[in-house]
Amino acid sequence: VFHPKGGVLKREMEDYVRQRHIDEGFQYVGTPHISKEGLFHTSGHLPYYKDTMFPPMEFEGSDYYLKAMNCPMHNLIYKSRGRSYRDLPMRLFEFGSVYRYEKSGVIHGLTRVRGFAQDDSHSYVTKEQAADEIKHLLNFVLGLLRDFGLDEFYLELSTRDESKKDKFIGSQEQWDEATKVLEEACLETGLTLVPDPGGAAFYGPKVSVQAKDAIGRTWQLSTIQYDFNQPEGFELEYQASDGSRQRPVMIHSAKFGSIERFIGVLTEHYAGAFPPWLSPVQALGVPVADEFADHLRAVGEALTVAGIRFELDESDDRFPKKIRNASKSKVPFVLIAGAEDQAAGAVSFRYRDGSQKNGVPVA
């Protein structure tokens, strides 16, 4: 449940990452929350992923599932018409709400939930394009995380467990080829690469970005997965330059991972003191006395027109308590107005560190 300030955080993050995807060559799509079970058999998620999906709902003689992933429906978009090698890479992106039946013992705050939104994308490429696409995605996700103030990373390469081959789809040759492409792309970043045997999804190996927050905790955030299974299951094809029909490779990628979890990580990372562009309230007006509220209200109207998120403290609290409340809420800029400010058409700025700059002209 996102309250208004949480809603601002969520909207700012969504707006940012939606535009970043468009800038990186992705097309924005949308898919339903529920589908017949046959779709998830075709994708391979049933039975491999069944324990993590909510139980089916019977309707008109068919079983329907809440989707735990977006990829099967993106495959339907790809398959909706014939594709040529000239269409590839084809990059699809959506904020897809997914639902996973996590055990009650692992549910925790925003970091482990049963319903969440993924900034989920799927790139359809030729085998020859796969390496460059993975490098492109790695640069994308690392740039995005740095924009949010995270800058200490290592990468984890998850592969299948050779002793449990029945839990994974595909031949040894397919796994070796996919793993090599991911590994080489990771090494080019210059970041430390840590093996994770047995941590892969059933349909292919994956790379995850492990990021450290301000107090040294490590979080798994972005993931990139190489999938040779679903193109086969959905019989996805493109016409190659020689006229033959070929299977594309499908590359899954989530940048935030889960937007809810990422908000939880950022809240911990910044201890609530978000950078001004992300702060739910960017400027807070605090009048020294009630008679100066109209002056700040006029300032706030101008700021709002300029796109600044402004609030005015009109509570019955005394001025010192309003300042304490503003400090506790970690608003980046507190605008104070008293008699001298009003007479001069100015405000006084108080910053998070407690410093103050007086007599700043409203203009």
Topology:
Blueprint: H1 4-23, E1 27-28, E2 34-36, H2 37-43, H3 45-48, E3 57-59, E4 62-66, H4 71-79, E5 90-99, E6 115-125, H5 130-147, E7 153-159, H6 172-188, E8 193-197, E9 206-212, E10 218-227, H7 230-233, E11 238-239, E12 245-246, E13 249-258, H8 259-270, E14 283-287, H9 293-305, E15 310-312, H10 319-329, E16 333-337, H11 339-344, E17 346-351, E18 356-361
Parallel strand pairs: 1-5, 7-8, 14-15, 14-16
Antiparallel strand pairs: 2-4, 3-4, 5-6, 6-13, 7-9, 9-10, 10-13, 11-12, 16-17, 17-18
Describe this entry's structure for a reader.
With 363 residues, this protein is an alpha+beta fold. The protein is 33% helix and 28% strand. The protein has helices at residues 4-23, 37-43, 45-48, 71-79, 130-147, 172-188, 230-233, 259-270, 293-305, 319-329, 339-344, and strands at residues 27-28, 34-36, 57-59, 62-66, 90-99, 115-125, 153-159, 193-197, 206-212, 218-227, 238-239, 245-246, 249-258, 283-287, 310-312, 333-337, 346-351, 356-361. A hairpin with a 5-residue loop joins strand 9 and strand 10. The model has no long low-confidence stretch (mean pLDDT 92).
